[in-house]
Amino acid sequence: MSTDPQSQSISELTKQLSEQAGRLAQQEVALAKAELSAKGRQVGIGVGAFGGAGLVAVLALGALVATAILLLATAMTAWLAALIVTVVLAAIAGVLALTGKAKVQAATPVAPEQTIETVKEDVQEAKTRAQEGRA
């Protein structure tokens, strides 16, 4: 089979086009899978940070309850210590929530952007070659 497109039959060229299009589609799917997998990992980290924020917030609520109990039951220094613990736990929850939010935002949009861009380039290349073939 000759490599010069001018000397090949239409059926040979069609067969080559079909094979190349199939290979290209497979490569684009593989690229999309890799891109979505990476974004999925980022979302997973963000969701985990949100989960950590929720756990620490529950601990902060428990400390706030202990603060109220100590306020009623003991002297000023005990409830003040419990209040300080509550504020620290709430600050940790805030940091975790902001971290989770940043990770989720970094992973969006979920669309495989690189794959979309390469498909656009492939379409443009195909159009250019088709126009060159007509000339």
Please identify the oligomeric state.
Answer: single chain
* Shape by Cα distribution: rod-shaped
Mean pLDDT: 78
* Separate helix tally: 3
Radius of gyration: 30 Å
Structural class: mainly alpha
What are the segments in which pLDDT stays under 50 over at least 5 consecutive residues? none
Q: Strand tally, please?
A: 0
Largest sheet: none
What proportion of the residues is helical, as a percent range?
over 70%
Element pattern in H and E: HHH
| Strand percent estimate | under 5%
The end-to-end span amounts to: 24 Å
Structure, explained:
With 135 residues, this protein is an all-alpha fold. 87% of the residues lie in helices and 0% in strands. It has three helices and no strands. Helix 1 packs antiparallel against helix 2 and helix 1 (10-73) packs antiparallel against helix 3 (113-134). It is rod-shaped, with a radius of gyration of 30 Å. The protein starts with 9 loop residues before the first helix and ends with a helix.
Can you give me a brief rundown of this structure?
The protein is mostly helical and 135 residues long.
Architecture blueprint of SSEs:
Blueprint: H1 10-73, H2 76-106, H3 113-134
Helix pairs in contact: 1-2, 1-3
